[in-house]
Design a protein that fits this description.
alpha+beta; Arc Repressor Mutant, subunit A; Beta Polymerase, domain 2
């Protein structure tokens, strides 16, 4: 089951981003970038959720920040639901961020698109000098913990650029699909023509 079964994609993304980590407070534009949604669509939903008390909002100059309201009676239930449906994302970040040789890493496929089940495999694109020999042992524990098959696709940034130049079908599909970023910056990735 995914959050998208119960909520609109916008609301599901808000819950995923804000209820996974109770200490997280995020600016509207950061949330929009991570969710892959327009700030205007996100703003409408955030305003509605803030009105219900599920999230808290505050202004700091021009910036508008949001966070989960941990005192709300539904917080524990929503946090549990998010953890069960999206817990692999923060776990992957914890494993991948410290590893050397990774410039960019993201989840693509059904999980990023919002229509995965708890048994869906996890498609990862890893760009950098790291190889499967070093990456596989780091991911093995997560695969067992979350009972999900992890499918890492590793290549150098030059290999990826070549695939993009040659209009490789896999590269074209991954480029246009939604992504959950694990390591690296989406804006840098986009600006470099990846």
């Amino acid at each position: 089951m995914t959050l998208a079964i119960l909520f609109s994609r916008t609301r599901a993304e808000i819950f995923r981003l804000l209820f996974e980590d109770p200490a997280r407070e995020s600016h509207l534009r950061d949330l929009a970038r991570e969710a892959g949604l327009s700030p205007a669509a996100l703003q409408r939903e955030l305003t509605s959720l803030a009105g219900s008390g599920l999230i808290l909002s505050r202004r700091d100059g021009n910036r508008h920040y949001f966070k989960a309201n941990t005192a709300h009676p539904w917080y524990a239930d929503l946090h549990g639901l998010v953890s069960k449906t999206t817990g692999i994302v923060p776990a992957l970040k914890n494993v991948l961020v410290p590893l050397d040789g990774i410039e960019f890493a993201f989840i693509f496929g059904s999980i990023a698109a919002g229509h995965a089940s708890t048994s869906s495999d996890v498609d990862l694109l890893i760009l950098g000098s790291i190889g499967l020999r070093k990456l596989t042992p780091a991911l093995r524990g997560l695969s067992q913990t979350f009972s999900r098959e992890l499918n890492p696709y590793c290549m150098t940034t030059e290999e990826w650029r070549r695939k993009r130049r040659e209009n490789d079908a896999f590269a074209a599909r991954v480029t246009r699909e939604p992504k959950f970023w694990l390591k690296g910056d989406a804006d840098v990735f986009d600006s470099m023509g990846f």
